[in-house]
Amino acid sequence: MSRIFPTVIFAAVWYLTTAQLWAGEADVVDAKARCTQRVCTISATVRHDDTGWDHYANHWRVLTPEGEEIARRVLYHPHENEQPFTRSLGQVRIPPGVDRVLIEAHDSVHNFGGQRFTLQFPD
């Protein structure tokens, strides 16, 4: 028993310290926009294996192609049992001359880095 105990302790500590990393980065898997004169409501669908308050997708943002943030949608709680999930953000003003935006999600461990979604606007 004395040999097994350190192994069990090591395995438990390893699991607890690495479990939140298994969720990976947050991906935007779909997005849609309803616009009137370049003021839009954008709905983004995010996929992330939220594990609770220590590791969850906590916001997504809308960027110009040059990387300027023009809007941000905060996600106030984990979505452990709702994956993927869609949330909307209204009153997003698309700057003149911008024909597409990038939408990316952020999670509380990895920051940004998951799959982005490009949303094209008609001419």
Provide a descriptive summary of the structure in words.
With 123 residues, the chain is mainly beta. It has one domain (23-120): Immunoglobulin-like. Helix content is 12%, strand content 43%. The chain has 1 helix and 7 strands, in the order αβββββββ. The protein has one helix spanning 4-18, and strands spanning 27-36, 39-47, 57-63, 69-74, 85-93, 100-107, 117-120. Strands 4-3-6-7 form a 4-stranded antiparallel beta sheet, with no helix packed on it. It has a 3-stranded antiparallel beta sheet with strand order 1-2-5, with no helix packed on it. β3 (57-63) and β4 (69-74) form a beta hairpin. The longest helix has 15 residues, at 4-18.
Protein topology:
Elements: H1 4-18, E1 27-36, E2 39-47, E3 57-63, E4 69-74, E5 85-93, E6 100-107, E7 117-120
Main beta sheet: 4 strands, antiparallel
CATH topology: Immunoglobulin-like
| Overall 3D form | elongated
The pLDDT mean sits at 85
Distance between the first and last residues' Cα? 72 Å
Identify the CATH homologous superfamily: Immunoglobulins
Reported CATH architecture: Sandwich
- Helical content stands at 10-25%
Calculate Rg over CA atoms: 19 Å
Number of separate strands: 7
Number of domains: 1
Strand order, biggest sheet? 4-3-6-7
Main CATH class: Mainly Beta
How many separate helices?
Answer: 1
Helix/strand/pairing class, anyone? mainly beta
Flag low-confidence runs. Answer: 11-21
Oligomer: single chain
Order of secondary-structure elements:
HEEEEEEE
Short description:
The chain has 123 residues and is mainly beta. The chain has one domain: Sandwich (Immunoglobulin-like), CATH 2.60.40.10. The chain is built from one helix and seven strands.
